[in-house]
Amino acid sequence: MNIVIINRQRARKLNPRRLKEIAEALLADLQIAEAELGINLVAAREMTLINEAFLRHEGSTDVITFDYAEKAARASRLRKKSLKQKIRRRDACATLSGELFICMDEAVLQAAKFKTTWQAEIVRYLVHGVLHLLGHDDGGAAARRRMKREENRLLRGLSRRFSLAQLARPIKLAA
pTM to 2 decimals? Predict the structure, then answer.
């Protein structure tokens, strides 16, 4: 399991070690045995550039997911349908390969709007992005409701095991 956290935002101090622990727990809950996951925390400006360049959408957004398992399948000429079935299986053989871009500025704004914390929003975006990597879709109303229910279930489980407030604490290095 390889999870890399890259923090390129300055809006909030973040404990990347704690976020990695939460990501590892999420993958364990989803029975993901192997993962190559990059988690990039960015500011609204960078998110806007990514959103416009890759998705052709204007402005910033909360999370953008890049699924590298699909790209690898196309490169090796595997059928996409076959790969999706393997990814959707919820067993210990499941694998995941991708990268998430999470916007801290959006997390802060949405936290105020929904009367929660930016830390809970960051974890929600992590869960949402990983669900996309597993093949969940939120394109239609019914699919969006199903995905939201799963997102809420996983977020509740993670917040019972972790103090999400600890995401705000920077790492103290020993002298």
Answer: 0.86
